[in-house]
Amino acid sequence: MKMLRIGVGALAVVLLTVGCAGERGEVAADRTVAASTTEPSPTATPFARTEWGDAPSHSATPSSSAGGGPASKPAATASSGAAAKSAPETQAPPPPPESEPTGCPPRHEGTPASRTQMRSALTDAAAKTYWPTSAPEIRIPAALVKATAWQESGWQSTIVACDGGIGLMQVMPATADWMNQRFGQSYDVWDYRDNAYIGVNYLAWLTKYIGDEYFDGDYRLDAALCSAELNSCLLNAVIASYNYGHAAVASGEGPITIPNPRYVGNVRALMTECVCLAY
Questions:
Q1: Mean pLDDT to the nearest integer, 165-188
Q2: What pLDDT does 224 receive?
């Protein structure tokens, strides 16, 4: 699916499709309730489509080549001390919508969470071990979590896109339903804490799926492993898939494809430059 988002005034929102995963019994269902505060929720700076948050510098943006790179699956890089390769994940989240509605401004529903509450929710979600049995080495960097949330919603917990994306991580309702039904969870997409868990859980699912399929079980989301070619590393593939859906990026039937280099470049830059990192 091609996610061509266009910002609409001060409430512009970046569309995403998300899913979450972990094996049954492996996904932590508990949550830490952030301390209540009267601090107001921040107002995100509107950007055209995939440019939520702070504009990234060109120096931090990977190569914009979407189709270059290896003609086959990237060579596997074995991490030191890696556990035996786990069974690949076969049940995938639903595909993203075929198209985005036009002329429909985003709206807000519910009571906004404060910046402090959102920071706590995102940090807590990043600290979870979503695959404690089959892939406990998977870790989702807090900087990636915060940057993705900023890119997707500008850290607005109540925003709802006209395509149906909800809240902090812009979770699609169908994706939340898929995760809850498949993994026996009861996440509430309208709760900013559960919304953060769903989004980060999806990043963990993508890490395992693509890591197994293309990187021989090497789950490192390390920018140092990325070359000038966008499809050279797991980090870029996971970021691209969060926005575009895994099937368009890593189908398993050919090389990794990055159809949204601008989005990947923005999130990569926000991982080191976002003002949200200091929140």
A1: 90
A2: 96
